[in-house]
Design a protein that fits this description.
By secondary structure, the chain is of the alpha+beta class. It has helices at 16-33, 93-109, 124-128, and strands at 5-10, 49-54, 63-68, 77-84, 115-120, 133-134, 139-141, 144-151. The protein is built from 3 helices and 8 strands; from the N terminus they run βαβββαβαβββ. The longest helix has 18 residues, at 16-33. The relative contact order is 0.15.
Length: 153
């Protein structure tokens, strides 16, 4: 895979075309692929910053996540809506995106940031590779098994 280019914007900085591309990726993953009949637009996007990756030759996002500062969703900072395009899976794009998100969060905190996520259960090992640990019993979110995980803190 080509090297990735990362883009990071606050809600009010997103262009109409960027927002459309990001919402398309999220709907492809969370609504179509996962057959989840729940609204992806949950009202939290304006409170988050948005990080995504493209290949240098590509204009469309291949991996994406939202980043929340501490005190917005949880007492800790948070990452959510982590998604990779089907074509980017098993290429390292998702891993690179998470590493970049955590790098930025650590830089903002001036140390290893405490970060909480609501992870789909099947991705638990993936997130453990970034230092996250399970801190809740399994639960259903939108009929999909999840666990809460925490890094640091």
């Amino acid at each position: 895979m080509d090297p990735l280019t990362f883009h990071h914007r606050r809600w009010e900085e997103l262009t109409r075309d960027e927002l459309y591309a990001l919402m398309t990726l999220r709907q492809e993953v969370f609504v179509v692929e996962q057959r989840c009949p729940y609204l992806d637009a949950d009202g939290d996007d304006p409170r988050a910053s948005h990080l995504w990756a493209t290949t240098p030759s590509g204009e469309y996002p291949i991996a994406y996540c939202r980043i929340f500062p501490a005190g917005v969703k949880y007492p800790e900072a948070a990452i959510g809506r982590v998604a990779s395009a089907g074509s980017a899976r098993r290429t390292g794009a998702g891993r690179a995106l998470m590493a970049e998100a955590l790098r930025r969060m650590d830089a903002d905190a001036g140390a290893t940031a405490a970060v909480r996520i609501s992870a789909q259960s099947y991705l638990q090992r993936f997130y453990e590779g970034f230092g996250f640990r399970v801190v809740s019993a399994p639960y259903l979110e939108d009929d999909i098994p999840h666990v809460e995980m925490l890094r640091g803190g």
